[in-house]
Design brief:
The complex is a heterodimer of chains A (71) and B (135). Chain A has 71 residues and is mainly alpha-helical. Chain A contains 6 helices and no strands. Chain A has helices at 5-11, 16-23, 27-34, 42-52, 56-59, 63-70. Chain A is globular, with a radius of gyration of 12 Å. By secondary structure, chain B is mainly α. Chain B folds into 2 domains: 1-68; 69-135, no CATH class. Helix content of chain B is 76%, strand content 0%. Chain B is built from 5 helices and no strands. In chain B, helix 4 packs across helix 5. Chain B is flat. Chain B starts with a helix and ends in a 5-residue tail after the last helix. The relative contact order of chain B is 0.14. The chains are: A mainly alpha (71), B mainly alpha (135). The interface between A and B is medium-sized, with 13 and 11 residues.
Chain lengths: 71, 135
């Protein structure tokens, strides 16, 4: 799933490891989410949203919204 | 390799179970070879080496329950699915070849060896599709 995680992380000058520690997941998890290889569960997506103090839809791009834009 | 706490516990369990397997196997083979096993406990001694292997399957199940990192857990689930698909496919193909007398008969426990080999296949698939070799 497309997302703005890398941008939000860069704004705070956090490394993937920094973000992983804040989310209590592995650095590999952060990398997989950032690169769109893995879609986080709803609880983890909420943790990410709460950490960045943004609504989920400002961080993760809805696949249906993305495809309708493409049309 | 992703070293979470659950993964470290899983590794310890597998190491101890593997050692136990080696001890049980050597004892059972020695006992049967030298006719030291009383008739009343033959079945029990024969399945002793199988029990630590069953324990490893339990350890994998416990790992999947205990792993808190959902991405790492998914990597292991993918590996287990590959292992199961690989081993069951191989057993099915071998079974039919055996039925038509085209290959020799293989002992049932070879399916376990194929399954563990399949775990490795799953790890490679994870590495080449997700970039993480996983567990």
């Amino acid at each position: 799933m497309e997302n703005r995680l890398r941008i939000l992380r860069a704004e705070r000058a956090w490394s993937q490891q920094d973000l992983a520690e804040r989310l209590e997941v592995s650095r590999q998890s952060v990398n997989a989410i950032e690169t769109g290889k893995y879609d986080p569960s709803l609880p983890l997506a909420f943790r990410i949203a709460e950490l960045f103090e943004r609504p989920i839809e400002e961080i993760f791009v809805s696949p249906s919204r993305r495809s309708s834009k493409a049309i | 390799m992703l070293r979470t706490q659950a993964w470290k516990r899983y590794n310890w369990r597998v190491v101890w179970l593997s050692l136990l397997y080696a001890v049980f196997l050597i004892a059972a083979v020695y006992g049967f070879k030298h006719a030291l096993i009383p008739r009343s406990v033959r079945y029990l001694v024969a399945i002793l080496p199988a029990l630590p292997i069953v324990g490893i399957f339990v350890a994998i199940g416990r790992y999947l329950v205990e792993e808190q990192d959902e991405y790492v857990r998914m990597l292991m689930v993918r590996q287990v699915l590959w292992a199961s698909g690989f081993a069951l496919s191989l057993a099915t193909i071998w079974g039919f070849l055996d039925s038509f007398d085209l290959v020799g008969h293989a002992d049932g426990y070879y399916i376990v060896i194929a399954w563990f080999f399949g775990l490795g296949v799953g790890g490679l698939v994870n590495k080449y599709t997700l970039g993480d070799g996983g567990c």
